[in-house]
Amino acid sequence: MKLLFIIKQTFSNLWRERTPVIATILTICIALTILVAIFEISFILFNQLEDLKSNTRVEVYIESDLSNSTIQNIKTEIEDIISVQDVKFISKDMAADIFNREFGEDIMEILGENPLPVTFEIRLYQHFNNPDYLLKFKEKVEEIRGVEEVHYRHALIAKLEALTQAVATAGIIMLVILFIAMHLLIRNTVKLSVYARHQQIQIMKNLGAGTIFIRLPFILEGAIEGLIGGILSSIFLIFAHKFAESTFSLLVFPHYTYKLIALITISAGIAIGFITSAGSVSVFVNKIFSKK
Amino acid sequence: MIHFKKITLNYGHVPGALKDINLRLHEGEFTLLLGPTGSGKSTLLRLIYMDILPSQGIVQVGKWTSNNISPRQINLLRRNVGVVFQDFRLIENMSVFDNVALPLVIESYRKSQINKLVHGLLNEVNLSHASHQQASTLSSGEKQRVAIARAMVKDPIVLVADEPTGNLDREASKNVLSLLERINRNGTSVVMATHDYELIKDTKHRRIYMEYGEVLPAGRTVPLSNKRITILTQEE
After folding, report:
1. What sign does the dihedral B22-B27-B29-B32 (CA atoms) show?
2. Which residue in chain B has the smallest CA separation from A4?
């Protein structure tokens, strides 16, 4: 009966104060949608970056007309560098075959000779695949006698890393701003609600109602606002994902994406609503009744 | 049952809301607190349900004493003291039934018990027909009867009524007084503050007169409702 009364009170209050309640729900919905979107973009970028890094190969072009033993010495010298995972030897003939496969043309037929250099294709250990180290590695390998040129896709890695970093930083700033906005709005709704119902609270206090009985409807209101905000946000995000999938055929989300989105947005919404309103109701009830 | 021992109460830095009050209210008694507005009647009543605590002295209500009471115990005390106010203090957007049931809901009574007790009380205050009506739709007299029913639903050790007829016309005031007297005859102690001498002049209840935060001694002649009367004041 007590719980039923509290639940009845909660819903009747939500209905009575529907304008600030709707504003709070919409704020929670927008904030959660933006947060999840930023998180997902950062996640995709990070995965792309990791993927690119793990597939990064450093190509070392060797000067022409070197003896086999000199080439072998260069290989050994490269292999001795601690960051090197493996070194693949590509002879001039192998390089011509690769050219043929990739461009569909026989370089010997076009030029009458094979100008492609002997190449070592180097794979580094994953954690060395960052722009700073790659640059140092390039400089080090270039110092080896017989090495003509060292090449890797440093510009793309650097750009993607900078972009991931920027999105992550923007995400953190947005996260802080949106959390503050959500917190302030829920707090304000609770404040209005406590002030509007201070007589009712006083009556309940006079009748001997305990803290939980008085505060629980406010806390449940916050949690319900969070729940509805979370549900709306997850619906919006799921539709956005489906739209993206149907528009960009290459984009395929894992099968658990929708469940994960619903779980994150709804539980985050409830948690934010519950925690903020619990803290706020305590502050405002104490504030009002300490004045009396 | 209720004992005020050397009570002094100051509101913040303003001294003298109550000055050296020594008073006993006995079980089963109907006590009238008389005196002009601002004399300290309501303040004295607020001490009974410990809405405020004295600056000096001790208030004892049943087994609870003000000098070592915790907030949790204050809640328990209030569940055993029925309070009726001049402005009714009903939750206006709730039904009559729900208002009366509130003290029982707070104490987690079962639905069947709540139904039985609330309907019984509403019958006693002649408001059975208005059970499902919203409190805001009632007349002032009806609202006060709902407030009395709510105060009585837990069978309190004392019913405290602070100017219960202050917002009512003569007829409704008489009805409320006779309802309180009936409650008292059934064994509940009643303490009622009023400045309406006309209403209570023919009653035989114990009268305590307050002025400037003090209980006046017996035999004093005081002005009341445009008359000068000698009241029997019993301090102890």
Report:
1. positive
2. B105
pLDDT tens track for B19-46: 889 999 999 999 999 888 888 999 999 9
CA–CA separation, A273 and A270 (whole Å): 5
- Using alpha carbons, list the distances in angstroms from residue A231 to A81, A180, A239, A268: 54, 21, 12, 10
A202 contacts B89? CB cut-off 8 A: yes
Q: Checking phi first, is residue A288 left (phi over 0); if not, alpha (psi -120 to 50) or beta?
A: alpha
Q: ipTM beyond 0.90?
A: no
Distance separating the N- and C-terminal Cα atoms of chain B: 12
Q: In what order do the strands lie in the sheet with A58-62?
A: A84-90, A119-124, A58-62, A147-151
Cross-chain Cβ contact A2/B79 below 8 Å: no
Q: Which of B90, B93, B109 sits opposite A1 (nearest CB)?
A: B109
Q: Measure CB to CB from residue B78 to each of A5, A16, A208 and give the nearest one.
A: A208
* Closest by Cα among B15, B2, B76, B101 to B44: B2
How many CB atoms lie under 10 A from the CB of residue A4?
10
Tokens representing A227 are 């729940």
